[in-house]
Amino acid sequence: MPSRTPRLLVALLTIFTTLAPLAQELPRPRGGQDALPTTTEKQNPTSDSPGRAPRPASVSASGPDGSARMTGRFPTGLRSLGAQQKPPSRNWLLDADSDDERFRRLQIAAGGSDVQMQQVGLRFEELHRAVLLDNRPMADYHLGKIREHMQIMGLKRPNRTPNLEDMFLLSGAFEDLRKVIQTGTHAQLKDQFLSTRQVCMACHVAERMGFLNDGGALARTSSFPAHVVSAPR
To answer: Is residue 165 within 8 Å of residue 171, measured between CB atoms?
Structure first.
């Protein structure tokens, strides 16, 4: 009995040759659920893709050029900010819904007493430098700035005003230093500066901020080098 294998192979080859052109003419899926994801879709899944995590809230779907972009938001730590109709932007003050909210934001941006204390520390080091060089105009200038910043500190934090005034501004410590700047000898000026420094440290303790006495500004102003060269005046 002759083998049927050659006939079967011929028949299968004939069927394949007939159906192959027809398969190429069938329509392909266009973005439906049966469509296979492209390489770009695999790398950039969207929130609309089934079974995929949504984008973070701060990422926009696309920018004008089709690329992803970040959108702004206010820090969650600023809980005293009022809501506004416009989205957050660099116009953080103008975009507020009311003047009351604008003033609130200005007050937040102005900061507390720490901002002024930073300025006081900077000026205190400059005052130390002026005393070291016996530069009286420079010393008087920075001492005046220290008083200004202390007064602004009392404006922002009225609970600190009593110690600011009773221990330094109105106690005589400020005026004593100013008088020595104006008329005292260089040795007297250095001694008075160090006495004023002790008053500052005592005020920190009175305000329960004594840990500040280990700060760099006070460490750098604890003494006066024996030899120093001043710049031309």
So the answer is: yes
C-alpha closest to that of 50 among 30, 67, 28, 35 = 35
What residue ranges do the domains of the chain occupy?
113-220
Q: Tell me, what amino acid is at 173? A: A
Q: In this predicted structure, what is the pLDDT of residue 7?
A: 62
67-106 pLDDT per residue, tens: 556 678 889 888 778 889 999 999 999 999 999 999 999 9
| pTM to 2 decimal places | 0.67
pLDDT digits (tens, 9 = 90+) for 175-229: 999 999 999 999 999 999 999 999 999 999 999 999 999 999 999 999 998 867 7
Nearest-angstrom CA–CA distance, 145 and 120? 8
Q: Which CATH architecture has domain 113-220?
A: Up-down Bundle (1.20)
Residues for the chain: how many in total?
233
* Angstrom distance (rounded) from CA 36 to CA 32: 9
Query: 3-class secondary structure for the chain?
Result: CCCCHHHHHHHHHHHHHHHHHHHHCCCCCCCCCCCCCCHHHHHCCCCCCCCCCCCCCCEECCCCCCCCEECCCCCCCCCCCCCCCCCCCCCCCCCCCCHHHHHHHHHHHHCCHHHHHHHHHHHHHHHHHHHHHCCHHHHHHHHHHHHHHHHHHHHHCHHHHHHHHHHHHCCCHHHHHHHHHHHCCHHHHHHHHHHHHHHHHHHHHHCCCHHHHHCHHHHHCCCCCCCCCCCCC
